[in-house]
Amino acid sequence: MDYIDIVGRNDSGWVIREPETKYEIDLLDRTFECAIMVLETLQTVGHEKEKDAVRYQLAKSGTSIGANYEEAQGASSRRDFSNKIKIVYREVRESHYWCRILKRMKWGDTKKVGQLSGELEELRKIFGRMLQTLGKAN
Fold it and tell me: Cβ(62)–Cβ(36) under 8 Å?
């Protein structure tokens, strides 16, 4: 995926499409489901002091991905949308960092942690490409 087509807006918000396809990416739903995946994964992590610190950080950054993307839907302009997507991108990267710690320390259900890590990596690529596309338009 070299870039993301930002097609425009519809009743639900901004329409994002993979280039040269008719496939629209429902990022509102996908980022919401990612937040649920984060919380479900964190339920499998114990409650020792060190784990609590990582759980708290991942819970904050992982749930704010969808919240910030939801906020981006109300952007007043393409530039405002771009600024909000930058925040989403940073939250995805931070979440992936905390997930990598879970993975390395073998904290929590390894299957769930692996799935979450994969989803965060895909979202990082999607939002990274989106920022590149938005940058080309400015």
Answer: no
Angle at 31 between CA 13 and CA 8, to 5 degrees: 25
First-to-last C-alpha distance (Å) of the chain? 20
Please state, in angstroms and rounded to a whole number, the distance separating the CA atoms of residues 109 and 111: 6
Mean pLDDT per block of 10 residues along the chain (138 residues) reads: 56 62 73 97 97 98 97 90 96 98 98 98 91 76
Report the side by side order of strands in the sheet with 13-17.
Answer: 5-10, 13-17, 24-25
Closest to 128 measured CA to CA, from 4, 18, 15: 4
Q: State both tokens at 52.
A: 């609590």
DSSP 35-95: HHHHHHHHTTS---HHHHHHHHHHHHHHHHHHHHHHHHTT-SSHHHHHHHHHHHHHHHHHH
Three-state secondary structure call for residue 133: helix
